[in-house]
Amino acid sequence: MPFLKKNASHGEKREEGVAGPSSDAAPIAANQKVTFIAVFLGVVASIGGFMFGYVSGQISGFFQMTDFARRFGELQDDGSYTFSPARQGTITGLLPVGCMVGALIAGKIADSLGRRLAISVSALWSCVGIVIEISSDTAWFQFAIGRLVTGMSIGALSVVVPMYQSESSPAIIRGVLVSTYQLFITLGIWTSNMVTWGTHKNLDHEASAAWRITNALGFAWALILGVGIMFLPESPRFAYRAGREEEARATIARLAGVSTDDKSVNDQITQIRVKLDEEKAGADTKWYEAFTGPRMAYRTVVGVVLQAGQQLTGANFFFYYGTTVFAATGLSDPYVTQIILGTVNVICTIFGLWVIQKPPGAGSALIVFSCLAIAAFAITWGPLVWAVVAELYPAKYRAPCMALATMSNWFWNFMISFFTRFITDKIDYWYGMVFAGCCVALVIFVFFFVIETKDRSLEEIDTMHLLHVNPITSAKWDGSQVPEGVKGSTHEESGHNSGAETHHDEI
Fold this sequence. Notes:
The protein is mainly α.
């Protein structure tokens, strides 16, 4: 818990670690505008999500390609080739294993190289994995290792991209821009569905071009992101922490469409300064402080559960195994069915972005219910989780905590991708009841443990957690509603060299 100490200039007690909202309690988003550069930043960075969706969605189609099965499958007595649960699970599951490794190291890379360069390096690393995959001949484990290497890139991007977006985006559209990461995941899945369908139909399905061309297109997305991100500004919060205050101020103003001496810019610079000063007053951050820091155990667990929940809704079951499942039901073209699911996913995710910005505080039957499940996911847990988790943590702990939360996502991604065939071979599609039960539990968890963060700065969100704002009533919190015994405000002078001081009186 934060501790109280005497403020020499005011003769008052101050609660360390708590930076309150501005004295007029007006949201920082009030003066901000939706600018082209802010939207462009969110879109370019989100190509990292597109890469994730593309490499995740293509594998389902590969398993139904004749040449892919002949090269990497197992010969049966009738002369056909198929994949055992263990081999199919390993090929599918080594991607999220690589992602866990990438997520684990992403925080250190982002803090040492900066957010932009970390994104660029991570994106270009995926090219190594793609080369390993498309050069595979008959060794299935080589292809699997290629997915492992590619996964390291995808995992690192899944941490650094939302971090960069949340630290850079104006509060007025931060939730939407961070959630475009999920939208681009769905676009990547849809694109891979279309490409695998096109290559399967228009190329000789007994030739390797059907899967090699699909794989090789991944070079394009990696180059677009790896090069394009370098033309965008660095995260203003990272720039400030690196001692580049004027750069941070100019970036905040440019992205929000206001002047550098606008009150909203001064407010954000003040809040960043206060938080940084508090961090410097303490010892160097250790990894275990993600659990022992002020109110950090709570937030770390919330992030881990939310990211696990995104997988435990069961959506990726369809994306990894959809073509295989639909083929087993006797449908004439399982590739088309997979495209239908991918299209539903994209359309509903777009609707999900509107929800974020405007909240008020077997056969045909299988297709229908699958679409409903994907629709529900795409509107809610798909885009929302990335936005909420990116806003959960103060700058001091953001990199390690986001890495832990994202690793949780990839761990359950691996569990589902590897064990699904084993489970469905035993209990068939009663497997879906496991996901249904998880969904019920997640509804309860969100209601009682996740606060409303719309239109608030990252520093205000940190204050809400430190003051133990009730998640159930958090949408109504305006800065004046603090726990009994604590009353706080942040005072600052306008201008570039404004001072900052935060104090909390004990009643």
